[in-house]
Amino acid sequence: MDSTKTTEPSAVTFQPGTTRSRFQTAAPETEQGPIQIRKMEPQDIEFTGRIIVEAFHDKVEHAVGKSRMEDMTQLFTKILRRSTHLWHRYHVAMYEGKPAGAMVIKFHDDNAIEDFQCCETLSHVGCWGCCGILCMLFAFTDISIGAAECYVDTVGVDADYRGKGIGKALMERADSEARQRGCTSVFLWVKQSNRAVRLYERQGFVITHPFGTWFTGFATGCRDWYNMEKKL
Asked: Domain named N-acetyltransferase: which ranges (predicted)?
């Protein structure tokens, strides 16, 4: 999140601890220490919906307006609940048995889309909010994932669990999942102004190129982005 915000949402994107990771996640569903990372389950829907929206807080607020943020959380949760064909993308981090973070990753040929319904969206966020969401989604539709690549779409950590290594463990799970699928690299997109850039660099990511157009700025509230990549 940007340091200029006066009120932070209750989730932050990638807020790992400073200690050396203990979570190598060789076995996908194995618990090591207080952190367990597993595939999202039905009971995780409300938590995951909230965390994902808050992880995109600035962009979502730009799209629908500050007063509609809670409505957007409810809307996304409904969409996620019925989009069972997408659940394989979602991972949840548990800390001492409680949900603490969530991650979305995608692989080559994973082109399925959310069960988005315009009428439902209008009822939650209004006409302007619906247009804003469509623009935001369109701005990210040109993501091309290669056959040997893994795309980290979202990493969100609940603010109550900052500094406990949740974000780091989720990123390492992405590495593990990618290796199991034969991928040779993991990549993500991040705002150039996001403090997480330095944290990603500590995880082994490097900036490959900046990007952004006037439409990216119009749709997301930020024109300047980085593509960051990590070789496995």
From this structure: 35-232
